[in-house]
Design goal:
The complex is a heterodimer of chains A (about 750) and B (about 160). Chain A is α+β, with helices and mostly antiparallel strands and about 750 residues long. Chain A has 18 helices and 31 strands. In chain A, strand 20, helix 12 and strand 21 form a beta-alpha-beta unit. In chain A, about 60% of the residues are buried. Chain B has about 160 residues and is α+β, with helices and mostly antiparallel strands. Chain B has 2 domains: about 80 residues, Beta-grasp domain (Ubiquitin-like (UB roll), Roll), CATH 3.10.20.30; about 60 residues, [2Fe-2S]-binding domain (DNA polymerase, domain 1, Orthogonal Bundle). In chain B, helix 3 packs across helix 4. Chain B is elongated and about 50 Å long. The chains are: A alpha+beta (about 750), B alpha+beta (about 160). At the A-B interface, helix 1 and helix 16 of A face helix 1, helix 2, helix 3, helix 4 and helix 5 of B.
């Protein structure tokens, strides 16, 4: 694999110098002459009727240029699939933090002052903030007109459960009858914020002809364009979205936020408008990871073979489902893990409550399912008095097996990741001290699908431009595309350029998300590069007097030159090849689209922790992460995704929780909501497993989302190993550990949490 | 509120400004001097994205009133590279892949520069402590530690 020209190498990112010098431009950095600063007035109540909004005092404040309420914006509902969210609350607010009005002023301080002068009269209504209450028959409805909403996957009425999905294989009644032992347990996970450092930002400017230019921190510029065009009622040609660098995404930046408000404020004021969410607003009204309640039931033989499995997940969706491109989350399907089980039935419910609307957060739904499944696996192993590795090993899927719900999976190499992780970690070695623990967890996540296009241009001087509308929210996507094209054309990286281009200047791209970019955008760039290479070779064939029909086989490229394999000394430069056809450049455009893929990826993580039994503090000392990656186009970038995902996962495991009381987020600051700092970051051993080929260029697979999935259960399992208490309710805080230790009354009780039947 | 005259010395340049006395150094740097490399991640001193040097000390510029920085030497990320030559920390961040989305990067580089100016051979614990006020969500910090180590290698331990 080492004889590659540009891929398989940890080349620096194409935007790294801009980013270390402060030159990199993010949306909040955009400044236009006469720009106004906007802010939103938000509901303090989780559920209320809006009786009256009086904006007159705010409008009278010097420096205020526009105030808008629901009557100034179209009466439509927005959503990536299920359309249930208004642009501004109309008549009714459904969560504390929902926008009811917005103001644009000459500076932020004036805008802030004006917010206080907007008088909103509410009639407070009872709120349903508990997901189980919301599921009860006859519960107060968050959306009374749910059945009229566009995008509802199946007709439902008079319910808060807007989606219920089921997956099954075999016959679970038969399976449980065959089981010698049956285990059952409940798990809960908390709401967490994606934690990107750059808050949502948007700028809108309206041209004299009514055309609209939008700058946005959204990672899907083409979706911003289509949604904005639809809202305003313009053809998409009249809306241009200029992408800025995105300061972190993790799933939270795929839905429009304040872009429409900027537009309507700009229209009313006649000036460009910028809106940047505060950190507090991010917590009150971002789109965090769904809290979940998960019940698992497993039937096993005494020798440890899984024979039947039931899983049920309840995802608290908050007040709106608008932020989810598929209405539900992929997580439901993950409720049976990566194991060979003949009889499986799993289901998931997605439920409205009067709380902050939840959205996509790095591997949507998977970290919740993974925490439950992989904790449960250890609990069963413990009851069987079996080593957790061995219990997984005898049940782990192998290549050729169907997925737990009977779908075809390609390239299953879970065991390879297990072996690698065990070998490089402290697994099976003596404990260095009594309160040290080690835990293992496995996970799976498919490579994503979608549509991308790329244009590859070889210029008259032999340099190369790539035009792609794909976005790079920090993942390194644009660098990867350059490496792919550099490899195909054998052109040095420094002679390839890829810029952020607006939606008028690039072909359509579905945008980053779901682990699709390296595969989908990568394939489009790879194929466009191959096409342009064919043209170069055809031109060179004439100059080299090579028979045209054999040219593609007989001519090779290297370092920007073409030559016959039989006579490598006689070289034609790319520049000569371009000029020889009488053109200024050679260019190819390729669209790649894929909607169905069996390829998936696996990982095994091993966590080593130290627990302070007095105060319950968990210190994650080391994570060993083995990832099935197919091929790492840029190993440092792949490692960076894994390392970042792990530390985000550690936060999910032990630190982070959006605490809520009566539907309101009570810790909306980064001092009360803790992200891992450099002091909490564990030592990370990353193992890139390149055995099973993936669908991307050079057999690459996706890597962005999976690393965050197995961490929480690996840590929970390590905590159990360290001090013998099993925490099934995330996050694993010191208080919970101390309480569990007190209740268990012993330092190392047997896994009492598992109920044993049959 | 009445604006007051303030002279700020940023990256060696003097700026005579008329600003409201309540404005933060962060907002003035970004909006009055157009030095947008310093980032606003929380505006309340929790995230460190707005870190600048004030007389050599790293501070959250969102917690400093611009008017109080009169006569101080201020360095922002734009002043870290000298005459187009990257600071060794910047070079190391580029080379080691320590940059992902880049939003926290300016603040972290400034915090680390402050450390290395005082302590050119820090231990890894000292490096971690110096960065502890700067949140990063993308990198897991690993490659940043590696980058600092590459700059200070052979020193410290």
């Amino acid at each position: 694999m080492s004889d590659y020209y540009a891929v398989g190498k940890s080349v620096p990112r194409v935007d790294a110098v801009d980013k270390v010098t402060g030159e990199a431009v993010y949306t909040a950095d955009v400044n236009l002459p006469g720009i106004l600063y906007a802010m939103a007035k938000r509901s303090p109540h989780p559920h209320a009727r809006i009786l009256r909004i009086d904006t007159r005092r705010a409008e009278a404040l010097p420096g205020v240029k526009a105030v808008i309420t629901a009557k100034d914006v179209p009466d439509i509902l927005l959503g990536l699939k299920l359309r249930d969210a208004p642009i501004l609350a109309r008549d009714r607010v459904r969560f504390a933090g929902e926008k009811v009005a917005a103001v644009a002023a000459v500076d932020e301080d004036t805008a802030l002052e004006a917010l206080g002068l907007i008088d909103v009269e509410y009639e407070e209504l009872p709120a349903v903030t508990d997901v189980k209450e919301a599921m009860k028959k006859g519960s107060l409805l968050v959306h009374e007109n749910l059945h009229t909403y566009a995008g509802l996957p199946a007709p439902v009425k008079n319910t808060n459960t807007f989606l219920h999905e089921t997956f099954s294989k075999g016959d679970t009644a038969l399976g449980f009858a065959q089981a010698e032992l049956v285990f059952e347990h409940n798990f809960t996970t908390q709401a967490v914020h994606q934690g990107y450092l750059e808050p949502h930002a948007a700028v809108a400017d309206i041209g004299p002809d009514g055309s609209v230019t939008v700058w946005s921190s959204d990672k899907v510029p083409f979706r911003v364009r289509s949604l904005m065009a639809e809202i305003i009622g313009l053809p998409i040609t009249r809306v241009r979205v200029i992408p800025s660098l995105v300061g972190g995404d993790f799933g939270g930046k795929g839905m429009i936020f304040d872009e429409p408000l900027c537009y309507y404020l700009a229209r009313k004021s006649g000036r460009p408008v910028k809106m940047v969410m505060s950190r507090q607003e991010e917590f009150l009204a971002g789109s965090p990871r769904h809290p979940s309640i998960i019940r698992l039931k497993a039937g096993v033989t005494k020798s440890g073979e899984l024979v039947a499995w039931e899983g049920n997940a309840i995802f608290d969706s908050g007040a709106y489902a608008a932020y989810k491109p598929q209405v539900g989350l992929g997580g439901t399907k993950k409720l049976a893990g990566t194991y060979r089980i003949p009889h499986v039935r799993i289901d998931g419910s997605y439920v409205y409550t009067h709380t902050v609307p939840c959205g996509h957060c790095r591997a949507p739904g998977d970290p919740q399912a993974s925490f439950a499944v992989e904790s449960f696996m250890d609990m069963i192993a413990s009851n069987l008095q079996m080593d957790p590795f061995r219990f997984r090993w005898i049940n782990a899927l192998e290549d050729g097996d169907l997925s737990p719900v009977g779908e075809p999976w390609k390239g299953i190499n879970i065991k390879e990741t297990m072996t690698a992780a065990v070998k490089s970690s402290g697994w099976g070695k003596p404990k260095p001290n009594p309160h040290y623990g080690i835990g293992i967890a496995c996970a799976e996540r498919p490579t994503g699908t979608g549509e991308s296009s790329a244009v590859v241009i070889v210029n008259g001087d032999g340099s190369v431009n790539i035009i792609s509308g794909s976005s790079d929210p920090g993942t390194g996507a644009r660098t990867i595309l350059c490496q792919i094209v550099a490899e195909v054309l054998k052109v040095p990286m420094e002679r390839i350029s890829i810029n952020l281009v607006d939606t008028d200047s690039a072909p359509y791209d579905q945008g980053a998300g779901g682990g699709r970019t390296t595969f989908v955008a990568g394939q489009s760039a790879y194929r466009a590069a191959l096409e342009v290479k064919k043209e170069l070779v055809a031109s060179a064939a004439k100059l080299l007097k090579c028979p045209g029909e054999q040219a593609q086989d007989l001519i090779e490229v290297s370092d920007g030159f073409l030559f016959m394999k039989s006579d490598p000394d006689k070289k034609i430069s790319y520049s000569q090849a371009v000029k020889a056809v009488g053109k200024s450049q050679l260019m190819a455009e390729e669209t790649f689209s894929c909607n169905q893929l069996d390829d998936t990826c696996f990982a095994t993580h091993i966590a080593e922790v130290q627990v302070d039994p007095e105060r319950g503090y968990v210190e994650v000392k080391r994570i060993t992460a083995a990832h099935d990656i197919g091929f790492a186009i840029n190993p440092a970038a792949a490692e960076g995704q894994i390392e970042g995902g792990i530390v985000q996962g550690v936060g999910f495991a032990i630190l982070e929780e959006m605490q809520r009381a009566e539907g309101k987020v009570t810790n909306p600051t980064l001092s009360d909501y803790k992200l891992c700092t450099s002091l909490e970051a564990p030592e990370i051993v990353t193992l890139l497993i390149e055995g099973a080929p993936g669908p991307g260029p050079f057999q690459a697979k996706s890597i962005g989302e999976l690393p965050t999935c197995p961490i929480a259960p690996a840590v929970a399992n390590a905590v159990f190993d360290a001090i013998g208490v099993r925490i099934t309710d995330l996050p694993i805080t010191g208080e919970k550990i101390v309480k569990a230790l007190k209740e268990s009354g012993a330092a190392r009780p047997v896994s009492a949490a598992v109920r044993k039947e049959g | 509120m009445k604006k007051i005259p303030v002279t700020l010395k940023v990256n060696g340049e003097s700026y005579d400004l008329m600003i409201a006395p309540y404005r933060t150094l962060l907002d003035v740097l970004r909006e009055e001097i157009q030095l947008t490399g310093t980032k606003k991640g929380c505006d309340v001193g929790d995230c460190g994205a707005c870190t600048v040097l004030l007389n050599g000390q790293p501070v959250n510029s969102c917690l400093v009133l611009a008017a109080t920085a009169q006569d101080a030497e201020i360095m922002t990320i734009e002043g870290l590279a000298q005459k187009g030559k990257l600071h060794p920390l910047q070079e190391a961040f580029v080379k080691e892949g320590a940059v992902q989305c880049g939003f926290c990067t300016p603040g972290i580089l400034i915090s680390l520069k402050a450390l290395l100016d005082k302590n050119p051979a820090p231990t890894m614990e000292e490096v971690k402590t110096a960065m502890a006020g700067n949140l990063c969500r993308c990198t897991g910090y690993s490659k940043m530690f590696k980058a600092v180590e590459s700059v200070t290698s052979g020193l410290g331990r």
